[in-house]
Amino acid sequence: MPVTDKDVLYEDNHLIAVCKKAGDIVQIDETGDEPLDEQVKKYLAIKYNKPNSAFLGVVHRLDRPVSGVILFAKTSKALERMNAIFKNREVKKTYWAVVRKKPVKTSGTLIHWLIKNPQKNVVTAYAEEVPGSQRCELSYRLIGTLNDYYLIEVDPLTGRSHQIRVQLSTMGCPIVGDNKYGYPRGSRKGCICLHARRLQFIHPVKKEPVNIFAKLPVDGFWEKFEGF
């Protein structure tokens, strides 16, 4: 589905954020499916009557089965500065995840060392540093319960591939629908119950606080948690 006005969460002369649908890819991959960055380029070209397309830089990424806030840069200056903001961890990312098993502790910090198998696109978490591993860290807290499902708010300090998915699974709480990381069955819609809820940072040009918020998907399940 093309990007429309209703998908846009934030826009100014420098940045645009949209609500990514689960199943969309952010950039082109081996599937050949149209990526989200190309959809946003088309949206901007039509909106601002730019027949030769519009500049768009990818600032960060979300896994294909994940929904929520995704940010792009509309100028090369904004892209360079946002890359530095992410690299320096000057952005706060907040995710919501739904699991079936209640965490032993209702809040805490998880630290692991991750190794990715690029051939299988699977990440393994280790409790201690091993050769070739990357350190990752997140904090979490249980914020709601609904019909034996548990809603967890996650604030990752680092931004490793599949980090939240593998760390929650290692804690014994695989995300609903994420059969790659321990949930017993996958979703027929190709999505998992992990949603990028909020993105907060200081604007790279205006130097003002930016707080971008994404409502939960309306799919008959997710929206039941909207009141938490």
Give the tally of β-strands.
Answer: 11
Strand-residue proportion: 25-35%
Radius of gyration: 18 Å
Largest sheet: 11 strands, mixed
Mean pLDDT: 94
Number of helices: 3
The general outline is globular
Q: Percent helix among the residues?
A: 10-25%
For the termini, the CA-CA separation is 29 Å
Order of helices and strands: EEHEEHEEEEEHEE
What's the oligomerization state?
Answer: single chain
Structural class: alpha+beta
Residue windows where pLDDT falls under 50 for at least 5 positions: none
Secondary structure layout:
Blueprint (H helix, E strand, L loop, with lengths): L7 E4 L3 E6 L15 H12 L9 E2 L8 E7 L2 H12 L4 E8 L7 E11 L4 E5 L7 E13 L2 E8 L6 H8 L23 E9 L6 E5 L15
Parallel strand pairs: 4-10
Antiparallel strand pairs: 1-2, 2-4, 3-4, 5-9, 5-10, 6-7, 6-8, 8-9, 10-11
Question: How would you portray this structure in words?
Answer:
A hairpin with a 2-residue loop joins strand 8 and strand 9. Strands 1, 2, 3, 4, 5, 6, 7, 8, 9, 10 and 11 form an eleven-stranded mixed β-sheet that branches. 33% of the residues are buried. The model has no long low-confidence stretch (mean pLDDT 94). The chain is of the alpha+beta class and 228 residues long. The protein has helices spanning 36-47, 76-87, 163-170; strands spanning 8-11, 15-20, 57-58, 67-73, 92-99, 107-117, 122-126, 134-146, 149-156, 194-202, 209-213. The chain contains three helices and eleven strands.
